[in-house]
Amino acid sequence: MLKINPDLDKIEISAIRKIAEACKEHQNGEKELINLTIGEPDIPAPKEIIDGTIEYIKTGKLGYPQLGGIVELREEISKFYKEKYKVDVSPDEIIVTVGSTEGLSTVIKTVILPGDEVITALPFYPGYEPLIVLAGAKLIKVDTSKTEFQLTVESLKRNLTEKTKAIILNYPSNPSGVIISKKNRDEILKFAKSNNLYIISDEVYSEIIFENEHNSFLTNDYRDNVILINGFSKSHSLTGWRIGYIISSTKLRNSLIKVHQYTVTAPSIISQRGALIASKKCRDISEVVDVYKERARVVCDKLEARGVYPIKPKGAIYIFLSLDEITDLSSLEFAKKLLEEEKVAVVPGIAFGMDNYIRISLVKDKDILSEGVERILKFLKK
Amino acid sequence: MLKINPDLDKIEISAIRKIAEACKEHQNGEKELINLTIGEPDIPAPKEIIDGTIEYIKTGKLGYPQLGGIVELREEISKFYKEKYKVDVSPDEIIVTVGSTEGLSTVIKTVILPGDEVITALPFYPGYEPLIVLAGAKLIKVDTSKTEFQLTVESLKRNLTEKTKAIILNYPSNPSGVIISKKNRDEILKFAKSNNLYIISDEVYSEIIFENEHNSFLTNDYRDNVILINGFSKSHSLTGWRIGYIISSTKLRNSLIKVHQYTVTAPSIISQRGALIASKKCRDISEVVDVYKERARVVCDKLEARGVYPIKPKGAIYIFLSLDEITDLSSLEFAKKLLEEEKVAVVPGIAFGMDNYIRISLVKDKDILSEGVERILKFLKK
Lengths: 382, 382
What we know:
Two copies of one chain form a homodimer.
Chain A: H1 15-22, E1 34-35, H2 47-59, H3 71-85, E2 94-97, H4 99-111, E3 117-122, H5 128-134, E4 138-143, H6 153-159, E5 164-169, H7 182-194, E6 198-202, E7 226-231, E8 244-247, H8 250-264, H9 269-281, H10 286-305, E9 318-322, H11 331-342, E10 344-345, E11 347-348, E12 357-361, H12 366-381
Parallel strand pairs in A: 1-10, 3-4, 3-5, 5-6, 6-7
Antiparallel strand pairs in A: 2-8, 7-8, 9-12, 11-12
Helix pairs in contact in A: 2-9, 3-9, 4-8, 10-12
């Protein structure tokens, strides 16, 4: 083959996706497969979004969307941040993206340069490192298991070098479900400002909160440092629609939008209209949150009743479970054996950089989740 | 602002898009604006696509699409290339992309490295250079105005250096409407193979052909060298849906798909289903082709009757008109004055690297196009 980008040898298709695809082999056995891998909501998107999108398609206005996203959607996002988070965001500080993935990709391509270092919390979402590597930079992973899975200024200080360019954060956290405290959030913001760092805050689970409040890194101060990534995939079950957004300073947006335009032109106009309905008419997702919260409770209670203690999630849609007291197997061996023997698929913690954990996605009805946990417990007994 | 990618200073939002946006100021005057800028089909998408997509949305199966694109769509594309072009393409050699833009972006990020040179024909589609620049490479533009707007092996030979990595081609050409001859196509393929170059062939206008045959660079030979980019925006008027595809060797696809996954995850499942209907049920677009062909004839006839001779397009949806015998104005001055004085918007040739041309898009009904040409002729008289 003719020479290609050598950095591509350093990255792989996401382990989560690989395990999800491997599940297909186990789909037609005697025992029904319980797939708790990929973080894809099983709860259907609100009917209003479906119906409204269909009505919109009938208008036939399906040409190129406005550069950076349709203005009505950007206005709704702006209003939402004002009302819910008390943050002033102009519609011209928003770019509507092809899911939060394109948001991340566009941001990293814009602000991360070869040789840069980017600090993130360990465990981390597996989508970050490949983008950092493709940008010629290095992801520095800071173990947070001793600080309640929160990144702290102390740990940032220990890892700060002349090359440090940015911090990528993901709270509520995938995989741990932890929310960042207001104190830690404020200290990290100050640290970023005084050290001239970008904060890339992936808040795609911001609306799925069980306890306490979500502390967004987007505040009225620090706007030059903070780049927010969010989307509708998790909050409104719009995974396949591929629709998210970036919020940044106006100045940075002028650069981000160049990368965005030449990478994708725009997200689908149909998906943008769906997101507009989500923003306008379906902002209250408390029923959905209650479902995930109840599922989290059921899984945690069941595990704890048998002496197995996961991290209790404060948000997002996952349970992160330590294997330390449970098994000597690596997370991948554990996940593979569990899949083979008990037909339960979970994500090995190694996908998030922690080989002594597994992640259970709360994306099945609580009865199925209960059965899944039963099988995990049965597997542990052996 | 904190330091960002310095290459971004070298690129701008596409001139076509800027002019299209500038048109908005002229939309509410006495005289109606005739906007012949952006290459966006005015012909609606086939009703079957709209209706079928709506039916699909009602099924509620709107989760993450399969990695690389839904298999049914990749199978249909594979069949299409077999039936129409006699080329064997496995579904596993196809990646479904967010329009041909993401296709281009993914390909360039995968195969073009810093320091590389990429040869293209002048005039060229404005989307190429920014992506090449962002990859740290250089676009070498070869004037084709003396060779009937076709890239030839002779011109490639003259521009070949040790750094040459790829050739980007766009036939049928935007802006010239020229088709590449079988002879030139074959010679370029051989040249690419013997010099170890990639051919990135953007064939997004492949189905809109007025005269002769489209000679695709995708043949059963040279598969290791050729990467095809195509999409449904132009052929099926699905611009806002953002749906296209890449065809490559299997080996290269394994690398392309990593970049694709981490850049966008996937194109919208809704758009993929729309494209599936386009592929399955709407492959005959001869009526659409006839409309563009008739429009091209009307515009050319009208201009020629007054002694103005554009390049007669053999395909695509544009008329490229030399200003040499017409005016001393630069293409941008010409376009600006034409817009101000006659309320006709065209794209200045400088957007395609040729300042002595303008591009007229055939994206309005022929009566409106006639009126547009009348106004251009009136403007020329002054």
